Amino acid sequence: MKFKIVTLGCKVNAYESTVIKEKMLKEGFIESDNNVDIVIVNTCSVTNVADSKCLKMVRRLKREDPNAIFVVCGCSVQNDKTKFENLDIDVLLGNTNKSKIVDLIKEEINNKHLIDKVKNDMQHEEFETMEIDKFSNVRAFVKIQDGCNNYCSYCIIPYLRGNLRCKDYDEVINESKNLVKNGHKEIVLTGIHTGSYKSKGKDIVDVIWGLSEINGLERIRLSSIEITEINNDKFYDLLKRCDKLCNHLHIPLQAGSNEILKRMNRKYDLDYYFDVINKIRSIRPDISISTDVIVGHPYETEELFNTTIDTCEKIRFSKIHVFPYSKREGTVASKMPEHVKEEDKKIRSNKLIQVSTELEKEYYDKFIGNKLGVLIEEEKNGKYIGHTSNMLKLCLDGKYNINEIYDVVIKGEFYDA
Asked: Are strands 165-166 and 186-190 parallel, antiparallel or unpaired?
């Protein structure tokens, strides 16, 4: 039988879909894009737009393969399974039992009845052990953690992913060794709240040091980490001494004013954030620091938004991922008054995206004429595309091998597509 997997959302979803794919292949199913017998959709619910995209995607896929067995799983299902129940779905999963999808598909093939495994309460789940042999991309993701206990006022994810829990330390190291043995030179550590990692007395810094001892692994990258999790001597020492740790950190800011940070229930203020960024740059002056910013959170006035722009320009981020605030029912922010109009959110988002574009070019221009290592990840239209350690995405002429690192002099190869 032929199958295909469609993944929406974050790196954690990408990892989990790879786990599902490997299990399907090992059981003799065949991956295909056309005329498939099984469709698996791994959904996202980080915003209302994400939920809408998931619903549209499932409907479209149903039209393309109306007779296929349909499995829909992930955050959007966990958030509200009822919106999928009238779409003739065969297997409904939330954020548990993804590692058991093959068994559930076999059950569906034999019994032909709706399988609904969506749990109502995610707050007391154990870590669902998953492992992959080879990632679909050159840079391999390793999920080391799930869930979040922060409960930022705007965020639905702790309710959908559940309590904070982590993969066993030895399993992280062994999985990574296997990925390197199978050819991966860069590993990206990912999770819902990656920096909160704790297992067997080990934290995220211990994981990185453990990975750094793997022969053949050349780069270790963090998908994202909170500012409060890196303000310690142990992490600063890692920055100083671990050459394999990529010269890039993604550190969410979310808002550039103390008033909105407080309403967001973030665990820091701007003085704290600035202080940690300065410490990081005192150790690695050229490090790339990217961030997330939510625009239009309740109570955000034009003045407070302008404060956020000023903050971003002072910090000189290498890139800003801009997200218009999305009201998520059940969160604290959804019950707040003073919601920002949609048209104002759109205007503000565009302004901040323009700031990000300018800062991104400014950061890139600093390296023109310098020689940096580029991991080649794909070939597209005769050109080779890859990332440097500090997350510059380059598009190179010439002949290169996929999954090799080349030292190149940075010229005008910045890739933005």
From this structure: unpaired
Return the exposure string of 232-247: e unless at least 16 CB atoms fall within 10 Å of the residue's CB, then b. Answer: eeebbebbeeeebbbb
Q: Give residue 59's identity as a one-letter amino acid code.
A: R
**What is 260-319 written as a DSSP string?**
HHHHTT-S--HHHHHHHHHHHHHH-TT-EEEEEEEES-TT--HHHHHHHHHHHHHHT-SE
Q: Which helix (H) or strand (E) covers residue 391, if one does?
A: none
Per CATH, which fold does 253-272+285-363 belong to?
Answer: Transcription Regulator spoIIAA (3.30.750)
Fold equal for 2-116 and 253-272+285-363: no
CA end-to-end span of the chain: 35
Q: Point out which residues pair with 379 in neighbouring strands.
A: 384
Whether the predicted model's global pTM rises above the 0.85 cut: yes
In the chain, domain spans: 2-116, 132-246, 253-272+285-363, 371-409
- What kind of fold does domain 2-116 have according to CATH? Rossmann fold (3.40.50)
Tens digits of residue pLDDT in 3-36:
999 999 999 999 999 999 999 999 999 999 989 9
- How many residues does this entry show for the chain? 417
Q: What does each C-alpha distance from 6 to 19, 73, 94 come to in angstroms?
A: 13, 11, 15
Residue with tokens 């065949």: 30
Q: What is the pLDDT of residues 251-286, one digit of tens each?
A: 999 999 999 999 999 999 999 999 999 999 999 999
Rounded to whole angstroms, the Cα distance separating 264 from 288 reads 25
In angstroms, the CA 248 to CA 122 distance is: 32
How far is Cα 334 from Cα 240, in angstroms, rounded to an integer? 42
Residue with tokens 């001494």: 241
Distance CA 408, CA 417 (A): 21
- CATH number of the domain located at residue range(s) 132-246 in this protein: 3.30.750.210
